[in-house]
Amino acid sequence: MPAGGKVIITCAVTGAAHTPTMSPYLPITPEQIAEEAIGAAKAGAAIVHFHARIPEDGRPTPDPDVYAPAIYRVRRESNVIINITTSGGPKATVEDRVAAALRFKPELASLNMGSLSPYGRQRILDKFELWQHPWEQELFMGAPSRVYPNTEEIITRTIKEVGAGGTRFECECYDVGHLYNVAYFAEMGLLTPPFIIQTVFGFSGGIGLDADNITHMRNVADRLFGADYRWSVLAPGKHQFRLCTMGATMGSNVRVGLEDNLYLEKGKLARSNAEQVARMRDILTLLSFDIATPDEARQMLALNGQARDNG
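The structure assignment produced for this chain is given below.
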């Protein structure tokens, strides 16, 4: 549960699921991603979650050299906590997936706690007549046969290699079984409290968007971890603000951003990540929640605040 009664807002700036055709505001280049991350921090995000994209066509990439300009600029210009992904496409090697986190040694890295297979993502093809780049169509056409592996071996190796640099892990749990996986790795001594639990609702192949599921995930986490965890909620698309708000009233932190949702409200594309952060901050403030600063979030999540290489 959030410590000290304050809510941490995380902003997932670009992700790997949305494509350039889907929104002209999706940040692609390192300069755009850095600008969006800094803007989100100014709007109230204590954490910014990083993926990288090939500047020429927006294709997701694990290449640390592509990450570098954005990471270094954000570190120079902001005190925000940087969270680097360790996920990757179905063909990505473990070396690919951990490369950026190993190089930049962020305070926080995301860690998917189980394998996933997306269902129905190919239906997105019907929503657009023209695509900017061939890889976008290929991405969705291949969805029915795609698996994103997160085996015990992959998770163990990620924890050992990335954790050796002082990075702590945000455990992304897309279903109830993933919470038990966190408990398993804790029993093995690989994950230490307070456990940082990001419950993910409504993504294909994972737990659904029902309000009862939020309560269920929280109750299971309570049984497994007691007071030794910090909880956050994320949900896709139109469900983002409503489920994050529901989670906050139940004791969670929240995540917004263009990785999860391209819209600010029904029929209106978000023009920036900062718009979404500001909207979430305003909702929480109206409900009398205090918003955690980056330094307060560091204390709540037991991050080590290690010295940062600013390039």
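Interim note for the steering committee: The chain has a mean pLDDT of 95. The first helix runs from residue 30 to 43.
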